[in-house]
Design a protein that fits this description.
The complex is a heterodimer of chains A (377) and B (264). Chain A has 377 residues and is α+β, with helices and mostly antiparallel strands. Chain A has 11 helices and 11 strands. With 264 residues, chain B is α+β, with helices and mostly antiparallel strands. Chain B has one domain: Double-stranded beta-helix (4-Layer Sandwich). Chain B contains 5 helices and 19 strands. Classes of the chains: A alpha+beta (377), B alpha+beta (264). At the A-B interface, strand 6, strand 7 and helix 2 of A face helix 2 of B.
């Protein structure tokens, strides 16, 4: 099948034209130096001059090369649906087809660019929520800071009063006795040193849990179980200094703003239901646990600084964490969202070592008497 | 090129058709799982992972083939019917909804056919059933049928199914036809498939034909169906007294795609 003008690529393509089946026929061809040669039947040779031919991208996704021309008013086409063949023709075009091949190359390139642009656009739209969430995650602290800064202290106090009154329902609050007096005394000494806009109010609840908590606005509740677990007034002062830091640093409100913000962001980005919102919810929970541990560490260090300003011995605070560490497996309720006690003690110890000891004014109270006053008969 | 099995067939029925295929000894046909109607004694049925064409040998090849089938929304498995007897035996496959069964001699059609993804019914063993992934954005997004169509390759006989009446057209090189996206059944791979915006907002909103047409440009033969199953299903669903809603089309745009693609 080698013609007189054979120099170029030869192969078999799908050919449409006069005398061929309407759905096309496989026809051998050769891209000669002067003309395209086809053999519709093995005996008949059919030549097409190059100036008549133009090239088009074609096929289902326009990746084929189609050679098109007209003869006697009938449209002909030779489809190169074999990628290797098409590549060979584009790589080594005969003189007469060079212009067409160059034009085709431009069209393919333009198609690739448009398609790339389109796909980038679609992926951007799809990925945008994820990126937005990432940004939010990255800048969460800053956003929360800005939001919390706008919340007035009075609003926080109302919130705290509400939370505290809910807590007192069903709880046995102690109003008199050595424990109440001593908690009040230590608390006031610390509050005076803290110099904050909050009015602290100190409460003791008769409850065996080793726990203490602060609500926004200044209510601090100490459980009698905590008093029993401490060995000195310095230890209790350490815990109270920690709780004061929670109030002063507005940790509850920050947590609230953070959780609500995440909820809103997730609902906006993923909708209320569906698997993605579940994943977002989980991420936000894990995030808030980490947030909570960070806050605890912050309160520990702030509390230590407060002890220094109030001239209270920091060894009590450290000793209390050592005690907690020993009982870590016991019924110590407030540890779930907190760092491990041994770590907390170690961090405080390192901090004290770095800053050096400071002058202290010891508490006058006889601690055994205080503990005895809250001992259950 | 894997060995193609040459099979004889006969199509029965007018609007609800089935095709009966005659298998010589050791000849086999592959079909979509669940398409079989009856088979003679001596024909053995085997479920295979992939399409059995052997186009991609080995376990990984089968896995890739099956994964692609999963993409087209079909079952991972196909069923092979092998005539294990010493005589000719018959097996029949039925169309799943009213329409026509179209025999396609792939060898004559250039060895490759692009089908709508649920059009394939059965084929001689050796025909490879793959996916044609539409990489061009507009076609994929607004094509109603999504990004994915089926690609039948080989030179044996394959049967595809069209809903309603079948229209077979041959497009000359450069000739163009605008088609509702849901009405395409199959086309030769030389046919160019594009999506065209209707262009007039008024007809898009009130014409009920959707915002986009498919444009098919020759050369090559195309097969169109007068009644896409989705269109029929929409009417049935809308007419069913216990349903207040409507079924969505299988576009990746979901509800939006249903609004756009015209089969409302």
């Amino acid at each position: 099948m080698i013609g007189t003008d054979a120099v170029g690529v030869a192969g078999v393509g799908l050919c449409f034209g006069a005398g061929l089946a309407s759905h096309g026929e496989r026809v051998p061809f050769e891209v000669g130096s002067q003309r395209l040669v086809l053999w519709p039947t093995s005996s008949r040779e059919h030549g097409v001059p190059y100036p008549a031919i133009h090239l088009e991208p074609g096929g289902f996704d326009r990746r084929h090369i189609q050679l098109r021309w007209a003869e006697d008013g009938v449209a002909w086409a030779l489809v190169l649906d074999d990628d290797r063949l098409a590549k060979a023709v584009r790589a080594h075009p005969p003189e007469g087809l060079r212009g067409e091949v160059a034009r085709l190359g431009v069209r393919f390139a333009r198609g690739r660019v448009m398609s790339g642009l389109g796909w980038s656009l679609v992926s951007t739209v799809v990925l945008l929520p994820v990126v937005a969430l990432g940004l939010l995650w990255w800048q969460a602290d800053r956003i929360v800071d800005a939001a919390v800064g706008r919340i007035p202290v009075s609003w926080e106090e109302r919130l705290g009063d509400e939370a505290f009154s809910q807590f007192t329902v069903g709880a046995t609050m102690l109003t008199t006795g050595a424990a109440v007096e001593v908690v009040d005394g230590i608390g006031e000494r610390l509050a005076a040193a803290a110099e904050s806009p909050y009015l602290f109010r100190w409460h003791v609840v008769d409850d065996p849990q080793v726990n203490a908590f602060a609500v926004p606005g200044g209510h601090v509740v100490v459980f009698t179980g905590l008093i029993r677990a401490t060995a000195s007034a310095d230890e209790l002062a350490g815990v109270l200094a920690h709780e004061i830091q929670h109030v002063v640093l507005r940790h509850s409100v920050r947590g609230l703003v953070r959780t609500m913000g995440w909820r809103a962001a997730i609902a906006i980005l993923f909708g209320d239901t569906g698997p993605l919102s579940g994943v977002g919810e989980l991420a936000s929970r894990l995030g808030s646990l980490k947030f909570s541990r960070d806050q605890e560490t912050e309160a520990d260090l702030g509390g230590l600084a407060l002890l220094r300003r109030a001239r209270i011995d920091p060894r009590g605070m450290i000793a209390f964490f050592d005690t907690l560490a020993k009982e870590e497996r016991g019924p110590v309720a407030f540890l779930s969202t907190h760092p491990v006690s041994t770590e907390r003690a170690a961090r405080l110890r390192a901090e004290v070592e770095q800053s050096g000891a400071w002058p202290t004014d010891p508490f006058p109270d006889a601690w055994t008497d205080v503990k005895a006053s809250v001992e259950t008969p | 090129m894997p060995q193609m099995h040459v099979i004889d067939y006969e199509i029965f029925g007018s609007d609800m058709q089935y095709v009966e295929i005659e298998l010589d000894p050791e000849e086999a046909a592959v079909a979509e799982a669940g398409g079989m109607m009856y088979m003679a004694d001596g024909i053995e049925m085997e479920t295979i992972f992939g399409d059995g064409s052997g186009a991609r040998p080995g376990f990984m090849g089968a896995l890739v083939g099956a994964g692609k089938r999963l993409l087209t929304g079909e079952s991972l498995f196909m069923t092979v019917f092998v005539n294990k007897s010493r005589e000719k035996r018959r097996v029949a496959f039925a169309a799943p909804y009213p329409g026509k069964i179209v025999p396609m001699m792939l060898g004559e059609l250039g060895g490759r056919l692009i089908c709508q993804k649920d059009a394939f019914l059965c084929a001689a063993k050796g025909v490879s059933i793959g996916i044609a992934f539409q990489k061009r954005l507009g076609v994929g997004l607004f094509g109603g049928e999504g990004f994915i169509m089926q690609k039948l390759e080989g030179d044996g006989l394959a049967f595809v199914h069209a809903g309603g009446m079948l229209a077979e057209r041959t497009l000359a090189p450069g000739e163009m036809l605008r088609v509702d996206t849901g009405c395409i059944v199959a086309m030769q791979s030389s046919v160019q498939y594009d999506i065209e915006y209707v262009g007039k907002i008024k007809s898009a909103l009130f014409g009920g034909e959707g915002l986009f047409f498919a444009t098919l440009r020759g050369p090559g033969r195309i097969w169109l169906q007068s009644l896409p199953l989705s269109r029929l299903a929409n009417r049935i669903y809308a007419a069913a007294p216990q349903t207040g809603g409507r079924r969505e089309e299988g576009s990746i745009l979901g509800g939006l795609g249903g609004l756009l693609d015209g089969d409302n």
